[in-house]
Amino acid sequence: MEVAIVVLVVAVIFIARSVKVVPQQNAWVVERLGKYSSTLAPGLNFIVPFVDRVAHKHSLKEIPLDVPSQVCITKDNTQLQVDGILFFQVTDAMRASYGSSNYVVAVTQLAQTTLRSVIGRLELDKTFEERDMINAQVVAAIDEAALNWGVKVLRYEIKDLTPPAEILHAMQAQITAEREKRALIAASEGRRQEQINIATGEREAFIARSEGEKQAQINKAQGEAEAIKAVADATAQALERVAAAIRQPGGEQAVQLKVAEKAVEAYGRLASEASTTLVVPSNMTEVSTLIASAMKMVQAGSKAG
Questions:
Q1: Whole-number pLDDT of residue 29
Q2: Span 82-92, mean pLDDT?
Q3: With 211 labelled, which of 146, 169, 227, 273 sits at a CA distance of 20 to 30 A?
Q4: What is the number of other CB atoms lying within 10 angstroms of the CB of residue 212?
């Protein structure tokens, strides 16, 4: 009975030491008699009891590593307090176990030295503008070295860049001066645009007034021309009617009578004037003589008037 119990206990111990259940996203390194034997994948695994042993356990998840803050000196000899965070992942459990005694410390130290080297090649202003470039160079440098440690560096992010207090004060003064400069430029541009708008408005108003005056003069000239044309047309029509009337039967006699009346009126006006010498034809009974004399008297009266 006691032997059976001992055998049962030995069997339980044997099974417990030979069966290994590896969690997801983990890798266990097995050594056989002190030498690397295999890497156990997630799930149920079997090893040889008392011969094999699990020497190292690694998580294959992405690991965030806070890189301690450090002082870096820029190209223009300015001190910067730099704080960052590194993200890496174990990709080879065997190398992570035997490539470095402590790959976490190795990655941290390499991140710090690489960061100091990258910032040392940049001026102060560039360190604030080129964060992405700094992060990329740090990742590239660490990832190349970390291959021997079975580690893949995914990314590095600068959390904070803190220059000395006097540098911060000078930067703030520079920013204030730049903003004041922009405000003055904006104000002068506004005044300039205002003057341009006023001059443009005055020019357009002057052009509009001159165009109006020009159109008014054109309209006036066209009106006067139309009036002259209308008078000329009326006179021409009157002459045409007179000529037509003369050609009618009795028209010539009517004209002679009208001329005789005008002649008599002219004689009357001339006779009333003391300074006028009146010449009377000898034969007043002849109508033609009277008309001729009357026409002369009309002309004389027109000159005297």
A1: 93
A2: 91
A3: 227
A4: 10
CA torsion, ordered 214, 218, 224, 229, to nearest 10 deg: 170
Q: For position 295, what pLDDT does the model report?
A: 54
- Beta bridge partners, 170, equal none
User: How far is it, in rounded angstroms, from Cα 142 to Cα 245?
Assistant: 125
Quote the tokens at residue 205.
Answer: 């108003």
Nearest to 111 by CA among 88, 89, 129: 88
Count of C-beta atoms within a 10 Å radius of residue 142: 23
> What DSSP line would sit under the chain, residue for residue?
-HHHHHHHHHHHHHHHHHEEEEPTTEEEEEEETTEEEEEEPSEEEE--TTTEEEEEEEE-S-EEEEEEEEEEE-TTS-EEEEEEEEEEEE--HHHHHHS-S-HHHHHHHHHHHHHHHHHHTS-HHHHHH-HHHHHHHHHHHHHHHHGGGTEEEEEEEEEEEE--HHHHHHHHHHHHHHHHHHHHHHHHHHHHHHHHHHHHHHHHHHHHHHHHHHHHHHHHHHHHHHHHHHHHHHHHHHHHHHHHHHHSTTHHHHHHHHHHHHHHHHHHHHHH-TTPPP---S-TT-HHHHHHHHHHHHHHHHHH-
What pLDDT score was predicted for residue 301?
45
Residue with tokens 């356990």: 57
139-158 confidence digits (pLDDT tens):
988 888 888 889 999 999 98
Question: Please, what is the Cα angle at 75 between 71 and 77, to 5 degrees?
Answer: 60
Q: What is the pLDDT of residues 36-62, one digit of tens each?
A: 989 999 998 888 888 888 899 999 999
% of the chain surpassing 90 pLDDT: 12
